[in-house]
Amino acid sequence: MLKYNILLKITGSIAAYKSAYLISRLMQDGHNIKVVATDSALQFIGEATLEGLTANPVYTDSFEQGKMMSHINLVKWADLTIVVPATANTINKLAAGVGDSLLTSLFLAHDFCKPYVIAPAMNTAMFNHPSTQSSLTKLVSWGVNVLPTGEGYLACGDYGRGKLLEPERIIEFIYNALKKNNNDKKILITAGGTKENIDGIRSITNISTGKTAAAIAQHFINKNYSVTYLHTPDAALPSGKYEDDQFQDFISLNDRIKELLTSDDFDLVIHNAAVSDYSLLEVETGAKIYAVPIKNKIDSSGDELILRLKKNFKIVERIKTYSRNKKLILVSFKFTNDAASEIQREKVEMLLKNSYSDFVVQNDFSDRIAGSKQTTFNLYDSKSKIDSFASSEELAAQLEQIIFIKDYLEAGK
After folding, report:
1. pTM above the 0.85 mark?
2. Is CATH 3.40.50.10300 what the domain over 186-275+312-411 is classified as, yes or no?
């Protein structure tokens, strides 16, 4: 196992005692641990205990003698930062950009190329409070890994969500987060709209620009995932390091998806390409019928041009059958046009059922700015709507969380 530098932040929760076992386990695995604790945290767990476990001094004050640059040096030192337990107060401060302590100042200096993990612990009412839920959503959109909470009896005697995960489970999340920086996840993202050629210069296409797919790809590229970006020649492109691949029409898209999925073990497919429902069968003008493909420009002197189209099969319904990795996660998109909410939901449910998608992102034409920038994304799983997101970047961060949490669930089986 690789040895990592882990910065562990402790806040003022009664669950702080569990951090001692977590530190002990990580130390046994050979990692270097440094602790930042709030004054409130030290009311629940002693500084001597933490120093004894880590063999390092505990950082508690931004202005402690000899440690004036801790908020920069600790960020540079750490390969991963985790706040455990994270109280509602701290979570809301982090989301608001408040830097009133060493612990919160460190977050403002955080390098998001490195994993930042939050393990919440609080009363159910505090966890469900709109401010806390809004803050967690915002932190996820920034790329923070927010762990799920357990459900059970809380210190106050209530029963419900908000219980800190057990240390063994948190360790699973930590190692998954560290592995993600080692490019162990392979992601295929499709982008752009297919073009079905009529002749050498004309085609049937759609309004897809690839901007959403490019933004999602950019998020995963920035996080050092292994990304294959399969796109049309005119689609928007991300920057950075990724595998570039192209398609033009329905047939070439299907062929490339099949070849990629049968030859490599992709963990996630985000199928965002806008695929034509019909392909051209033949063209009729005047007394002439042209079989496709037509290389030359069709004469435009006739009064009428008749296009005969044939129905295409749904590529999204074949993606999982193509995949060599039978644990593939599939995220598909359903684009609607000024549809009522009940119609949108029906379309989503049909896609989930027919394509065996794990998640569906639904967006509507009415939520586009200037016909190109999408402003609302609704994410569904097989049970219900998960959440809505105002940008591609927020959606991408949530999709990353999906992989992160699914890894843990699979590991626990």
Report:
1. no
2. yes
